[in-house]
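Justification of computing resources. Each target in the renewal requires a structure prediction run like the one illustrated here; the chain below, 227 residues long, is used simply to show the kind of job we budget for.
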Amino acid sequence: MRILIVDDDQRLCDTLKRGLEENTFAVDCVHDGEEGEIYGCNDIYDLIILDVMMPKKDGVQVCRDLRTRNINTPILMLTAKDTVEDRVKGLDTGADDYLVKPFSFSELLARVRALLRRQDKSRSPTLKADDLTLNTVTREVYRQQEQIMLTSKEFAILEYLMRNPNAVISRTMIEEHAWDCNFDSLSNLVDVYIGRLRQKIDPEQGKDIIETVRGAGYRLRVNSKSA
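Resulting structure tokens:
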């Protein structure tokens, strides 16, 4: 899943980016409100973390303008202001949650996961596809009750596929959700990681749960009764 952080505090951005990437998210960072709005309007993000006090355009106005443009990406607002009036103002402009600085990274991560679950049809942190199970909180993956060890990037790609069972997912869609804006779209990294996932999840040849759809991308094949 891909997150946009809009905050003029470079050190905080670097810290949050590092922590979120360690938890399988792809993260882009920008440092003023105008640039944040431009990025946010691309509508490729699963969540936006938006600071209130920023140069060029403050976060409240960015949030309001994004909602006016029908950008419905969940927004978590960050601010040093902790009065009730400030929180109400942020939420009334269209933010989904509000976190007061200073905060612990564990709390931010919990709020990020909660907001992302709201977007999903199922609020459960556990995703299932036939005998394949993925827990988004513990980051554990099992198939036929045997644990499978995945890297952060492998986990992110598998989670994306499992959130879209039986749908054809193009390479570009995987790139946009699993990598940040610096990804080289001419590389074959997506194919490499899909190959690694198959080796770990489908050790028996001919029983791939991840199918290649020629000329289109990939599909996580799931029995209709369990999808």
